[in-house]
Amino acid sequence: MKDYNLKMTIEAAITHFPQGSNAVKVYDETGGFAGYITMDALSAAVQQGELTRPISQFVIADLPIPNMLPNSISSSQFESFFQSEFCRLVFNSLYDGVYVTDGKGTTLFINKAYQRITGIKEEEVYGKHMGHLIEEGIISISASLEAILKKQPVTLIQKIRNERRIIVSSTPIMSAKGDVLYVLSSVRDITELIRLKHELDLQKLTFKHVADTSFLPEHSGFDNLVIGPSTRPLFKLADKVAKTDAKILLQGETGVGKSLIAKYIHSRSLRSNGTFMEINCGAIPEHLVEAELFGYEPGSFTGALKQGKKGIFEEANGGTLFLDEIADLPLHLQVKLLKAVEENRFMRVGGTETVQVDVRIITATHRNLKNLVNEGRFREDLYYRLNIVTFEVPPLRDRREEIMPLLEMYLNRYNTKYEEDKKITPECYEWLTNYGWPGNIRELANLVERLVVITFNTDIDVSDLPPFLQPAILKTETGTLKEETAKLERSLILEAIHQYGSTRSAAKSLGISQSAIVQKMKKYHIRVENESK
Ligand SMILES: Nc1ncnc2c1ncn2[C@@H]1O[C@H](COP(=O)(O)OP(=O)(O)OP(=O)(O)O)[C@@H](O)[C@H]1O
């Protein structure tokens, strides 16, 4: 599977691991073969609680040759052991689950931990063949049967009643003749492990969050800030520079929180009683930017207000002016901005007198401004003027510890807004934390809002996620072709409805008629609120 790369974490690898495989190939950044990662290695890493370590530390060059098991104990000795009270006592005192079958795959014994982890009772499985348990949907796949078939130890991920995921390691016990006499399996709960890990992450973060923001004035509007290890230095620096008038350049992808940091700096500055004005230089038509920034005198151009208008520089007088997407400012206006920034003075469009203001300037861009300077597309003198302090705001994929608290924060927000009480399942959190979030925090917020609105059950689970986020493994692992096709169809319809807002446009985008989409929506219980006709 090309999906496995050296940077992948144990946690991500284990959730993707194809059912029934013992090993998968791993590739390096250039696409070259780097070795194998085995289920045994993942299992060992999970047992040591190394969920966030990269798999590169566990990759091996060659697959191990299967161990030949000791077979000096006779079959009757084993038989009397498995039937003894002593065996029950020993296995029942273990924290991990234990499952014992005979050499044909018929269940002989399960310990108490196995019953706790899986919810399966001994009477449900005792004397039953593993194949039968698969048919009944109690387990998804049998490591014991695999071990019998291969006559080798096998480790794999199994689903219990389509809910919990467990790691099962099965070891065959062989006779001198090489027949499998018994299979001994040990079992660990991954769902629980992952949940515990996230709970721990969340606790650590909540603690830090409180520690870092407790100094904020009440109702400052920043009660819900999530500050993780990667962004803490930025907020500390923001606090330090807030008290000065130093010009700040915020760089970072879209939706990473540049505008939020600008507001934070303003709120912590001596200008916090003044206005915070924000303008997106890329969103205004080029011919209007100058008037928006600097204002204009009466009758200075066609379409202008008779009485003239103040520009945003004047509106921000005494406060902070945040110029977003500064790289989009046309070159000819960069000269005027430079002068305004240096002297806090400028002329309105069509004006003859200078206007004096007292404004603190913060700028932001998602581009690399230095490169634009080198290419001659941004003035070097202005670049140095605006960039006394630079903040590089990292993308969400490099702030993974913040994903879970952000999901929680938005879940609370939208639960309140829509009067719902939705919860995200641990497995779903797992997928959401491992996703790359190209659209950053805004995309995350948008997805949580959608999930709160469109899901029917209280629990938001992996199957509720849009197709681009759904793990491929689920699609092959569960359900018949018909069920899987229906799931996909439902997701595609939901996506289209969400994107286009009306059944007509959604139907068009999917290449079906409006009546067909309406019928399918009835079938899949999809509703559209306030559809525009
Ligand atoms: N540390 C944080 N904690 C909580 N919410 C945050 C945090 N950072 C950003 N957000 C939220 O994420 C959303 C996007 O942030 P923001 O608008 O500041 O990003 P941006 O980088 O300015 O985006 P753009 O470049 O598109 O203007 C906002 O709703 C903001 O409140």
Automatic annotation (TrEMBL):
Residues 229-453 form the Sigma-54 factor interaction domain. GO terms for molecular function: ATP binding; DNA binding. Pfam families: AAA_lid_14, HTH_50, PAS, Sigma54_activat. Residues 83-152 form the PAS domain. InterPro entries: AAA+_ATPase, AAA_lid_NorR, Homeodomain-like_sf, HTH_TyrR, P-loop_NTPase, PAS, PAS-assoc_C, PAS-like_dom_sf. Keywords: Aromatic hydrocarbons catabolism, ATP-binding, DNA-binding, Nucleotide-binding, Transcription, Transcription regulation. PANTHER family: C4-DICARBOXYLATE TRANSPORT TRANSCRIPTIONAL REGULATORY PROTEIN DCTD (PTHR32071:SF57), TRANSCRIPTIONAL REGULATORY PROTEIN (PTHR32071). GO terms for biological process: regulation of DNA-templated transcription. Residues 150-202 form the PAC domain. This is HTH-type transcriptional regulatory protein TyrR. Signal peptide: none annotated. Gene3D superfamilies: 1.10.8.60, Homeodomain-like (1.10.10.60), P-loop containing nucleotide triphosphate hydrolases (3.40.50.300), PAS domain (3.30.450.20). PROSITE patterns: PAC, PAS, SIGMA54_INTERACT_1, SIGMA54_INTERACT_2, SIGMA54_INTERACT_3, SIGMA54_INTERACT_4.
